Amino acid sequence: VEDRNDNSPIFNVATLQGSVREDASPGTPVTTVVATDRDDPTGLDQYGFVSYKLATSPEDPPAPGGQRRFAISESGVITVVGNLDVETAPSVKVVIQAKDGMVNSPGNQVTATATIQISDANNRAPVFEGRPYNAKQGELLPLRSTVYSISASDADIDPANKAVTFTITAGDTGGVFDIHSNFQGGVTQGDITLEKPLDYEKGPKQFILTVNAKNELATNSDDTLYQVDTTVIIDVLDENEPPVFINQPYNGAVTENQGPEPNIARVRAQDYDFGGNQTVTYAIVSTEGWFSINEEGSISSIAPVDREHPAVNQTSSIYTLVVSSTDNSTSTANVAIRINDKNDNAPEPDGPWTVTICEVPPEPRVTTINIKDKDEPKNGPPFTVTIDDASGLWVLENENPMARSVATLTKSFDVNQQSKYELPIIMSDGPSPPEPRLTSTATLTINICRCNDKGELNCETMVPIAGAGFPVALLIAIIAAILILLIIVLAVVAYRRRQQAGLEKEILLDDDDVRENLQAYHDEGGGEEDNDGYDISALQAPPPNSVKPKVIDVRPLGGAQPESRRPIQPDTDIGNYIGDAKQQADNDPTAPPFDSLLVFDYEGQGSDAGSLSSINSGTTDASQDYDYLNNWGPRFKKLADMYGGGEIPFP
């Protein structure tokens, strides 16, 4: 079969993409374009052979001046031939033509567009903005403050090639300044800060700084072609500074507890601002009130000084006096004043002087008491220490110049007799002559407690008595008085409760209790005048639904209902009348076992003396005469009108 050129080349799309840095030199290969043809490339006409060239159409975007940036070989290799600029053309499109067959023979032709991405390179130097740079700053500017700020930009795209780093390369004598780079929003700002104090009087009055700017993160950061320098001028301005103390350090001396002493020390301050023509004044800053200072800086004592004061260093006896100097601003200085000690403090306890021991001490030694003296060592130890103890139970032993051991001469104590000992300790110091010896007294408190077999203290059984201070007899008397008072109170309470219980047993009756009408009398007979002493209505049964008197401590029979008592009509036979009432009450299950309303006597019938009741005593006309009531006064007038001069009306 003889091959014919009946197939056109087909581009491999993946080979139509490429990338290159913008700083690539001419001849740098970018990518290789590949197209295939199905015809036989080995035949005489080579119909399957593919060759490449650029189409006549321009690149997109066109290069400046109509020049081409890229070229392609017959084998399909695209190379750089012109200048690349990612800032103006981040990508370039070129049209590739592929033809099959021999090179100069006609063949099938196809075209495709290859896209080449241009990557950024650091090929532009930073550009300073806002020049020239001139700054003026006062000499009192605080450290780490910003003196001046500059800025620079870079036309590169990649942040690594765009960020600028500033460096002070010249003019910073003594390292007074530093510069900090801050890249933000495409612009880098450089802040020049103060690292050492400015001094108009003694230092440079002007700094001329050279600042370099480069792309520190770029791969070619050391290439000076892409670096730039600028100049920053900083003028130092004179300001009013505090006066400066000269001829330091300052020292002085004064004796403790002495009167005023002049000229114990002298200070001097100088102000160099504005030609040094300002007036300097001095003052005492310390608040103890011991010293004064005059306008010349001479220091004098004006009051007795106490070496033991907390403001004085007790080890060195140095008092630090603070003085100030002022023009329009203030500075301070320290004056070290030594306080010569006087023996004005007696020895005293150093720490607590209280100890607790067992009733039977395991050893004679009880405790160690520490002694101190606020004065200097030359006016302190050695101490003379004695114990003021008449009992002879305690002794002191030397331990060291600042302490004594306390021991007991007895093998056991009796906590019931005395549980606390308060021992006066007399202490004297040993000053160097001619200082006087000082003496003081302090109390050592020794508590006595019982101990178990392990030597553990048990102080709950301690009995405070004489010497510790409390007599046993008085304690017993107080306890006995409390017990007697308690017994009396209990007896009174018991008596009151018995009285209350007796009252509660009484029947709660109404104010109209009929028993008030039952009166005891001893008159035999008596006529009609004694009828008000015996009210027969007391024998009447109470009306239904009436409230019956109750006894507090007696309960009715459980479940029983009160029996309705029928009214009993008056009867001439009082015996039958009372018997019926009693029988009716006995048959009532809710009635109390003793009802005082039903307790009464009947004298009976058939007596030779006759009836003593006044019920039937009024049987004659004379006994019905009530005219004498008129003689009894106005209080009986109504009764006289009712009964006088006629028959007595009966209901």
TrEMBL record:
Keyword Nucleotide-binding carried by entry: no
Segments traversing the membrane: 468-495
GO terms classed as biological process: adherens junction organization; calcium-dependent cell-cell adhesion via plasma membrane cell adhesion molecules; cell migration; cell morphogenesis; cell-cell adhesion mediated by cadherin; cell-cell junction assembly; homophilic cell adhesion via plasma membrane adhesion molecules
SMART domains: CA
Domain of life: Eukaryota
One Gene Ontology cellular component: catenin complex
Region (Disordered) residue spans: 18-39
InterPro entries: Cadherin, Cadherin-like_dom, Cadherin-like_sf, Cadherin_CS, Cadherin_Y-type_LIR, Catenin-bd_sf
PROSITE patterns listed in its UniProt record: CADHERIN_1, CADHERIN_2
Keywords, comma-separated and alphabetical: Calcium, Cell adhesion, Cell membrane, Glycoprotein, Membrane, Metal-binding, Repeat, Signal, Transmembrane, Transmembrane helix
Compartments reported by the entry: Cell membrane
Topological relation to the membrane, as annotated: Single-pass type I membrane protein
Pfam families: CADH_Y-type_LIR (PF01049), Cadherin (PF00028)
GO MF annotation list: beta-catenin binding; cadherin binding; calcium ion binding
Gene3D superfamilies named among the record's database cross-references: Cadherins, TCF3-CBD (Catenin binding domain)
Positions of the Cadherin domain: 12-128, 129-245, 246-349, 349-466
Function as written in the Swiss-Prot or TrEMBL entry: Cadherins are calcium-dependent cell adhesion proteins.
Name this polypeptide is given: Cadherin domain-containing protein
